[in-house]
Specification:
Number of helices: 1
CATH architecture: Beta Barrel
Oligomer: single chain
Largest sheet: 8 strands, antiparallel, barrel
Order of helices and strands: HEEEEEEEE
CATH topology: Porin
InterPro entries: OMP/PagP_B-barrel
Helix content: under 10%
Shape: elongated
Number of domains: 1
Protein name: Outer membrane protein beta-barrel domain-containing protein
Number of strands: 8
Keywords: Signal
Organism: Sphingobacterium puteale
């Protein structure tokens, strides 16, 4: 009888302890970060994982992947480079694969946004090419966006902007269009 009572007592203790360890968590949807991720000396790595656009001249749609990396030269101001990998589709024509590289400058507006997010502006200028054309193109872009921090080091982004590319510097032909994109950035602290 003593062994049975001891066994019952130990089993009850284990059940009560297991029930006391139940932890309910909810996914983190935002983090109060202030200016820490965009301080001078920090790095940012990420990019747009889905970018859609419409060309005014060619009446074509495009989708792009834009990985990027940057360094904060001062609080809120980053410089870096991004690769542009994309696909252009036109009705009744072959698909065109595009590629390019462009240095960029990104500025986070100091008092625009909230404690969990920041508005920013980004400009880039670079070179691009395609599977159809044999010459390099001048590519220019101007975008505005919002970075929403889900943790202290990761932000989801949405961008809207205008892009222009000129097939050859010597000719007058060019293409321009509007684009929207979504992506993410990882902010890495630098040495202080």
């Amino acid at each position: 009888m003593r062994k049975f009572a001891l066994l019952l007592f130990v089993t009850s203790g284990i059940c009560l302890q297991a029930n006391a360890q139940k932890i309910e968590t909810t996914p983190q949807m935002a983090s109060d970060v202030g200016i820490e991720p965009i301080r001078q000396g920090n790095w940012m790595v990420g990019g747009s994982i889905g970018s859609l656009g419409y060309s005014f001249e060619g009446k074509s749609f495009n989708a792009a992947l834009q990985p990027r990396a940057g360094y904060f030269v001062s609080d809120g101001l980053a410089i870096g480079a991004q690769a542009n990998l994309g696909l252009h589709t036109k009705k009744d024509e072959d698909n065109e694969w595009t590629y390019g590289i462009a240095p960029f400058v990104r500025y986070y507006f100091p008092n625009a946004g909230s404690s969990t997010g920041r508005f920013f502006g980004q400009g880039d200028i670079g070179i691009s090419g395609s599977s159809i054309g044999k010459s390099a193109s001048l590519a220019v872009g101007a975008n505005v966006g919002y970075a929403h921090f889900i943790t202290r080091t990761v932000a989801l982004e949405a961008t809207f902007g205008y892009n222009y590319s000129k097939a050859s510097i010597n000719t007058g032909s060019g293409a321009s269009g509007l684009g929207v994109g979504v992506g993410f950035q990882i902010y890495l602290p630098g040495k202080r």
